[in-house]
Amino acid sequence: MSRYDVVIVGAGVTGCAIARELARGQRNIAVLEKNADICEGTSKANSGIVHAGYDAKEGTLKAKLNVRGNEMMEELSKKLDFPFRRNGSLVLCFNEEDLPKLEVLKDRGEKNGVKDIQILSPEKVWEMEPNITHDLAGALFAPTGGIVCPFVMTEAFAENAAVNGVEFYFEKKVTSIEKSHEGFKVICGDEIFEAKAVINAAGVYADEIHNMVSDKKIKIVPRRGQYNLLDKKCGDFVDKTIFQLPSKLGKGILVTPTVHGNLLVGPTAEDLDDKSDTETTAEGMSKVFKEAALSTPDINKKMVITSFSGLRAHLDDASGKSDFNIGELSEAPGFFDVAGIESPGLSAAPAIGKFVADMVNRSFPVPNKTGFVETRVGIPNMANAGDDEREALIRRNPQFANVICRCEFVTEGEIVEAINRPVGAKTLDGIKRRTRAGMGRCQSGFCQPKVLEILERELGTDRGNICKAGKDSKILEGYTKEDSL
Amino acid sequence: MKNVDILIIGGGPAGLAAGLSAKRNGIGNVLILERDKCLGGILNQCIHNGFGLHTFKEELTGPEYADRYVTMVRDEKVPFMLSTMVCDIAVDDDGDKIVTAMNKDEGMLKIKAKAVILAMGCRERPRGALSIPGTRPAGIFSAGTAQYYVNMEGRMPGKKIVILGSGDIGLIMARRLKLEGAEVLCVAEIRPQSGGLKRNIVQCLEDFDIPLYLNTTVTKVHGKDRVSGVTLSKVDENMNPIEGTERFVECDTLLLSCGLIPENELTTAAGAQIDPKTGGPVVDGMLQCSIPGLFACGNVLHVHELVDHVSAEAEKAGAFAADYVKGR
Question: Most buried of the four, A15, A129, A130, B124, by CB within 10 Å?
Fold first, then answer.
């Protein structure tokens, strides 16, 4: 049995942000993740948007933590070295009759504390974004909206947490939780983790974890969102994140540049029963384009390089509040829910980390540790480096001269670093999220064998054992002529 | 900064033939830059035969064909650098090309060239570009990636295989995987006819009783961690799936052989005009791009059916580039 002061269930962006904040105190912390890597659930398949904060109803946690998270993002992205750009966002209104709804949104934004939002005329919008539809009545402009790399952001929180002493356990699926005189026994099959406090950051599975300790059951509905990602050739099709005013046609599809220069369109919103159903569908993929065309009619469908879908952790709440559900359970003191973290969860993650840490500190005060490491330096990025910086990196380590992924210009040096850093990559997808190798227009066709070779060497395992993600996703299936004709 | 007359980017079949031709046409100061640790490019993994009937009047395997050219390049002392990646091509005020490259020994290097021949080849179209719905498990490979695993590493990408697309690489891999012990269930082709060579249909599919389903595509990938099957559907004349024709095929691997895309990152970065039809640069009768002194040949220009045609075109590009340099 391992003993910790705090056990966090879930190594998504929320769990990792909380881990980092809690690591400021003198306590032992473990993060338990059922998948083989961090960032394997909702955190890896979302819009990568840092919302300005005008969407959520005033007074809700969503509103408060979104705006606060947005404010924290810039400094944090520098401290922890993850890609973030404040590109601004527009909410398009297609009909004159809907214009008052823009006003409502603006009002709400102002009440939530969103700075500098304004309503723009169509002419102003076209000046800003020439590819936007001419069937436009006006738009809400929020200059504080941004885009972020959700993978590297999660990685940054996790790495920094690990540097500050947090221990990460993978492929540890929590099967039950029992109250004990110390606090809780978190049971993962035949392994037991005892903790004074448990934090439930289990994403779409947060209801199952909650229901293990509480009779006041909650229910999370996985709400699927399908996306199409387009080639970098159309990365400058729009500069701002383009939302649509929710209308009778639906909640609206966004069109946004990603922080890496691709174009992303999506998501759909489909309530499902299966919490692992991240399939894409023909209907979903065409719906995304059909509705995106309302905002930007000339969007080029032929430039799709991949499609994916993610599941939002939507709290099925009878009260209809539909807010984040964050707090210590009165029926199980020491157990903290961080549930229902759907949009704007990514934007709010830094603030959620702080908010939850404050809450835990009130119930379980500990002195701050000395020598907390505030900052992290990310994996060098050869693609964005200038010639001098490239030269210096190659001199430091000649592996930086060996390009493995041509599409995204990722070198052996970067991949080796991704493997050998704290909370390092062990899978093909882990490499992809940390370095972008395989993220480009050929989608790993060229670099996959080379990445396997590097993983084999660095991890000291046969390449036949290396997986795409989980342990049942091996890339290779034995040797040639094993069972020939 | 290194100075050369003609710089060739890529040491595959196009680059080798272009370099040789430039040298034979009187330009001694040429240089071939190859990203990989050996010359020959994709030919090295194409261990089947059928190469060289036009060029050498005999049937060779890919590595043999490459070796003929590599031997000539060595014999005729055409300079080349291996494990060297070109990062950028710029044009200076005199019209010279400034090529930035990098390798382990020299770090970043700048090479000034009077002419540059683009010979970077092509890459395969991925699943995403085909918009196949379903899950995203392990076990989906482009045919060329599978070919690399099998022929270069002796590893199997899977044991029960469905191939989408009847391009030549797909057909060749159907036979190869069967010979190596896999079960190849079928090749599905969305079009009414195969895109591959007739001889490959006969020798790779018919001779091995592998069915080819025309007007058929994959409409769904199944399996959470590893591919567990695919749904095949018939398509109408507009290539749209016909409802009611779906059938599930259990398999652990899906190979994609759905076309090749010229690799033109450098061409675009240099500012050369791209032909949206071919995906390669726009060239004139001298194989010269919209930038004077920038030539292109082989699959970077457009995708060729036979390597023999690549060599022939590259030979011309080498000669045209030599003329250009002499004329300056």
Answer: A15
